[in-house]
């Protein structure tokens, strides 16, 4: 065995890691190596191997770990936060809390690239898109973006590429949230666009801009008529983007009806806790004319091979994965789980319930407005939904102090102005309390009923007509119905709670229950991201310790927890590199070298950071071609800004030349960005910051156990060496340039997951996890090698933590495609491996350390059974069109049909391994037609008749 004895590993480590001692020994035996250390010696180059300890000591047991987190949570102070500014108190319905947010069937799912096993979450996302379309009054909405501020930056970029105006400036309403302004500024600066920030009614010269961003209602609470400004923009050929509060939109005229082309915002207040900044679903909706260029993922309706309606991700070819250098956005991981929660909040409340919640908030606000006016306080915003900006007459500090004493946070704007935003959790008591804070001597005039419908909303800004008329928003109002709807959708999907998900590059490892428990504690959830620091003492402790530990793991000197995904980490890291070069006068350094094998987000992020991409070739063994690298370095000369390299490579190999690649780049004045998505192969074995890299992102939703949530949330903090530390993202709430997310610590409320994982594993456990991840991948490679070619291996014949099966020879010989194999795996109850990345026509398998030998064998046996079916075609027993491979996946309708006229036995069709154990997974649809869906783009809930017609 390896040098760490079991006693030092701790009980949790054995729960996290799949193979036990006996299995590990047996697997090592198959590989012909004596122990784990021997395997690692054959895998990780000696030149980068780092045997020093991480210094974390032994792992904690689960009880102690939860106690530690309780202690941390207790240090956060839960005030009544009426700060607003994009974050509001809200009530997650408990049926959703327990059966969705806390349900592994939902949170351990992967992005729905395999639509046949994702119909449940795709339906929920289609509900989300429908909800957003109806609230905004626009035609097409995507299935979430990272937060409101990044959505606004994406809106600016979309405006720039689609406006008929060729101006180079973008206008931003000064009444936008400061954090939105920060993130938009950062993006505009990198791309060389000028920003004009001001009052749209006074400062906007429409002819000088390609677009504008307005906030509705404004940060001040003002509900302004945006129609005239939008008309002005349109006349000049510019695009009108509006950031809108989706709860206000249940009462307000939709921005679409006022002419907006793009609407963005955050769905946080649809039941998702503030969580000190996230995660929450950002949203974007656009006019029909812009639908083919909307960033992010889009769920659409298509049909399966039986002609039944079926959901899938639409317009996949627009994705950055495919577009690479031509990409216009780098969004990959988004906020699927949070979008689903928000959609279910709307499904459960329905349009009437949503309006009632909004109306109640508005009534309370109207009463507070009246009471404050009675006390002589002047209000800056004449109209309002839920937010009042009050002139304090120099009393801000005194009022603020009384608020603190009463456990209330207000929005401090300046010495003469304070903001108050009410929310779903507000009550008469809240109104009374706020009034007492502003005017301690006031009598209880606030309770005097000044209720008049929509008192704060001008009559011509009131929404007219019904919305959310689709039955899905009316059917599930009782808890019984809601519970069953959630269960029914979850049952249609395959997530980690049913099967291994061997997706290469995605690291679908265990998301342990103990790690998930603290996420829904109110001490983490009910914290406003802009609350004063002394209320965040617990969070701060967690941030500091997590940063320290990530530094120890990665060999870097400083960490920023701000980026909300790996791709945003790439963007933030490249911006740091850019700023570093500029600080030294190297303004011309704007070329980013990227190997041909890179993940699509790499070139997309480089593009967003204002760099141009030069591709470096890979050699026949899949490694970076050093000769070509030298040539490219020579060619770009002093324009070299950086190289972006993934390590171990996306080909699943520890390249021996990594140090040389770093040295060559540094010698030419460039910086090394090391994509850390594959850190699961390195933790405890080697440190990027020590072997030559300058900056990396860490996908906490891969290596550090944050569940994928069906396509988000994620977290992509970056680590940097000391010289880049001054260029890490800045605090967004200041409105200054440099921020990449709306909240200072990104999706802070899911950081306890990664933190708990690190505490539970201890340094020996973390190292063991890496070793077993490598063992599992090599075990699969060894078992499958006699049946499928393994595309790439390291110098000593080993793969890293993943391996690529080459199916191209079979395609040439028999016509069988990666799709056929992927869909046939569904019949065996498996989620497919990563398809056609990084090499078209291949499957990339990453088992992770969490899968035991039995599950690995079940998978290998399924692949070998599939190989036999390929042989049937090879040897002429069946043509591919008639084979079970092409007919896969098989549904209950197929096998229950009275007539079976296939060329293979009925039982062969459906008899996967799951069936033998009595827990067969039945996909709800047959193979889905992607081309049909893209030609007939439908991205919101289709009318029910269409289902009825299809069933005929
Ligand atoms: C997952 C991944 C990314 C992108 O990370 P997101 O969190 O999805 O944005 C980048 N590079 C590689 C190699 C990856 O596997």
Can you walk through the features of this model?
- The relative contact order is 0.15.
- The longest helix has 39 residues, at 336-374.
- Helix 6 runs parallel beside helix 17 (479-491), helix 21 packs across helix 22 (601-608) and helix 26 (751-784) packs across helix 29 (853-874).
- This protein has a seven-stranded mixed sheet with strand order 2-8-7-6-5-3-4, sandwiched between helices. The chain has a seven-stranded mixed sheet with strand order 15-21-20-19-18-16-17, sandwiched between helices.
- The protein is α/β, with parallel strands linked by helices.
- It starts with 5 loop residues before the first helix and ends with a helix.
- The model has no long low-confidence stretch (mean pLDDT 94).
- Helices cover 39% and strands 11% of the residues.
- Among the domains are: 101-109 and 119-298 and 319-346, Aspartate Aminotransferase, domain 2; 351-461, Aspartate Aminotransferase, domain 1 (Alpha-Beta Complex).
């Amino acid at each position: 065995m390896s040098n760490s004895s079991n006693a030092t590993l701790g009980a949790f480590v054995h729960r996290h890691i799949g193979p036990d001692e006996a299995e590990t020994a047996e697997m090592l035996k198959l590989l012909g190596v004596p122990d784990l250390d021997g395997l690692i010696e054959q895998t990780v180059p000696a030149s980068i191997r780092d045997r020093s300890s991480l210094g974390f000591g032994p792992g904690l047991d689960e009880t102690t770990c939860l106690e530690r987190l309780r202690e941390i949570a207790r240090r956060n102070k839960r005030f009544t936060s009426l700060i607003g500014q994009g974050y509001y108190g809200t009530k997650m319905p408990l049926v959703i809390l327990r059966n969705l947010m806390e349900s592994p069937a939902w949170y351990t799912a992967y992005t729905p690239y395999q639509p046949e096993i994702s119909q449940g979450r795709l339906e929920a996302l289609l509900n989300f898109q429908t909800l957003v379309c109806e609230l905004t009054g626009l035609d097409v909405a995507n299935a979430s973006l990272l937060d409101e501020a990044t959505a606004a930056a994406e809106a600016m970029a979309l405006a720039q590429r689609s406006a008929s105006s060729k101006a180079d400036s973008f206008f931003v309403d000064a009444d936008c949230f400061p954090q939105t302004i920060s993130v938009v500024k950062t993006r505009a600066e990198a791309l060389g666009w000028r920003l004009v920030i001001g009052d749209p009614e006074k400062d906007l010269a429409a002819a000088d801009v390609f677009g504008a961003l307005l906030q509705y209602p404004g940060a001040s609470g003002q509900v302004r008529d945006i129609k005239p400004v939008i008309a002005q923009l349109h006349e000049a050929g510019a695009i009108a983007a509006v950031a809108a509060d989706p709860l206000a939109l249940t009462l307000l005229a939709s921005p679409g009806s006022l002419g907006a082309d793009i609407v963005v915002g955050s769905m946080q207040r649809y039941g998702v806790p503030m969580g000190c900044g996230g995660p929450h679903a950002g949203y974007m909706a656009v006019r029909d004319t812009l639908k083919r260029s909307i960033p992010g993922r889009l769920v659409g309706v298509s049909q399966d091979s039986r002609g039944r309606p079926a959901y899938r991700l639409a317009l996949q070819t627009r994705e950055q994965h495919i577009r690479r250098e031509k990409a216009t956005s780098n969004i990959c991981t988004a906020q699927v789980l949070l979008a689903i929660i928000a959609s279910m909040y709307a499904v459960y409340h329905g349009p009437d319930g949503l309006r009632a919640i909004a109306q109640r908030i508005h009534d309370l606000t109207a009463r507070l407005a009246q009471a404050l006016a009675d006390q002589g306080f002047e209000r800056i915003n004449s109209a309002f939904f839920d937010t009042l900006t009050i002139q304090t007459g120099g009393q801000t500090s005194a009022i603020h102090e009384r608020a603190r004493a009463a456990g209330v946070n207000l929005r401090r704007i300046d010495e003469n102005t304070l903001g108050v935003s009410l929310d779903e959790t507000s009550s008469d008591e809240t109104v009374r309390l706020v009034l007492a804070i502003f005017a301690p001597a006031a009598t209880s005039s606030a309770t005097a009923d000044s209720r008049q419908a929509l008192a704060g909303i001008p009559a011509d800004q009131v929404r007219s007509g019904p919305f959310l008329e689709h039955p899905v928003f009316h059917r599930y109002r009782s808890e019984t119905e809601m519970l069953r709807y959630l269960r029914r959708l979850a049952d249609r999907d395959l997530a980690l709670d049913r099967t291994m998900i061997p997706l290469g590059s995605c690291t679908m490892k265990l998301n342990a229950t103990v790690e998930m428990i603290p996420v829904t504690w109110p001490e983490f959830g009910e914290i406003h991201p802009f609350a004063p620091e002394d209320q965040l003492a617990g969070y701060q402790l967690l941030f500091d310790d997590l940063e320290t530990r990530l530094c120890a793991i990665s060999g870097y000197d400083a960490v920023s927890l701000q980026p909300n995904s790996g791709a945003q980490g790439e963007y933030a890291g490249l911006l740091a590199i850019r700023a570093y070069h500029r600080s030294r006068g190297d303004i011309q350094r704007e070329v980013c070298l990227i190997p041909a094998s890179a993940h699509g987000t790499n070139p997309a992020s480089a593009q967003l950071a204002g760099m141009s991409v030069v591709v470096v070739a890979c050699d026949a063994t899949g490694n970076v071609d050093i000769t070509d690298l030298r040539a490219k370095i020579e060619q770009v000369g002093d324009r070299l800004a950086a190289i972006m390299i993934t390590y171990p490579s996306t080909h699943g190999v520890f390249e021996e030349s990594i140090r040389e690649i770093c040295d060559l780049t540094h010698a030419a004045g460039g910086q090394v960005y090391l994509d850390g998505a594959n850190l699961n192969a390195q933790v405890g074995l080697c440190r990027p910051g020590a072997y030559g890299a300058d900056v990396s992102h860490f996908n906490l939703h891969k290596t550090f156990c944050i569940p994928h949530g069906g396509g988000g949330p994620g977290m992509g903090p970056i680590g940097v060496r000391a010289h880049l530390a001054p260029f890490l993202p800045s605090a967004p709430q200041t409105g200054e340039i440099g921020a990449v997310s709306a909240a200072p610590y990104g999706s802070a409320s899911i950081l306890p997951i990664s933190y708990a994982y690190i505490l539970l594993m201890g340094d020996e456990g973390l190292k063991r996890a890496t070793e077993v991840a490598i063992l599992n991948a090599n075990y699969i490679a060894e078992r499958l090698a006699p049946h499928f070619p393994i595309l790439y291996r390291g110098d000593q014949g080993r793969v890293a933590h993943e391996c690529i099966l080459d199916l191209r020879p079979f395609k040439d010989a028999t016509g069988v495609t990666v799709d056929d194999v992927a869909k046939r795996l569904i019949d065996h109850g498996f989620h497919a491996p990563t398809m056609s990345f990084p090499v078209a026509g291949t499957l990339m398998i990453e088992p992770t350390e969490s899968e035991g030998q039995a599950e690995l064998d079940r998978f290998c046996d399924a692949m070998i059974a599939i190989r036999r079916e390929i042989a049937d075609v090879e040897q002429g027993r069946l043509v591919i069109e008639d084979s079970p491979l092409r007919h896969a996946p098989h549904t209950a309708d197929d096998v229950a049909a009275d007539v079976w006229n296939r060329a293979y036995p009925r039982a062969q069709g459906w008899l996967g391994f799951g069936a033998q154990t009595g827990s067969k997974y039945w996909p709800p649809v047959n193979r889905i037609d992607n081309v049909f869906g893209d030609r007939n783009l439908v991205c919101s809930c289709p009318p029910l008749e269409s289902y009825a017609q299809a069933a005929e």
